[in-house]
Specification:
Jelly Rolls; single chain; 12 strands; mainly beta; four-stranded antiparallel sheet
């Protein structure tokens, strides 16, 4: 008899953005190793103009961080929750829609619209980069990590 044991998701708060935030990056944080992530940027106090966010990962164990193609839509003068889904996969055709190649081989800017493309990241070394125009909103970034389930076969 086969038994499927799905592990529960891990949910945690990873970054708090204050209204005094300026252009730069958050402190480093680690993501749980998972097959899929859902990020929630909960904006509780609107800013005066806008903030663009981009996820960053380290290529050398925490010294140098580079932008990866994961961005929320630009946060302007509204409050609410912004959602970004990222799915694990390896290779150019492993994106959430089967094949999502826009932006591959090009510089990933820290500004622009929502973006979720294939990217290899080191989940132990992550940051949230921010480009702030005017006064930043007050917000908290949460993640729900969907871990890989396990399947055990009972040899009965």
């Amino acid at each position: 008899m086969a038994v499927s044991i799905a592990q529960p998701p891990i949910a945690k708060s990873i970054v708090t953005i204050a209204t005094t935030q300026t252009t730069g990056a958050s402190s480093a944080f680690a993501l749980p190793v998972a097959d899929a992530y859902t990020f929630y940027l909960n904006v509780t106090v609107a800013g005066q103009t806008s903030v663009d966010t981009v996820f960053q990962t380290s290529v050398d164990g925490g010294t140098t961080y580079v932008n990866v193609p994961w961005r929320f839509a630009q946060v302007t003068t509204t409050t609410g929750c912004f959602v970004l889904n990222v799915h694990a996969g390896i290779g150019a055709a492993a994106g959430p829609t089967g094949s999502l190649t826009t932006g591959e081989g090009t510089l990933i800017a820290g500004t622009g619209g929502v973006l979720s493309l294939n990217a290899l990241v080191d989940p132990r070394y992550m940051k949230l980069g921010m480009t702030v125009s005017g006064t930043a909103p007050a917000a908290t970034l949460y993640v729900i990590a969907w871990q890989r389930g396990s399947r055990d076969a009972d040899a009965q």
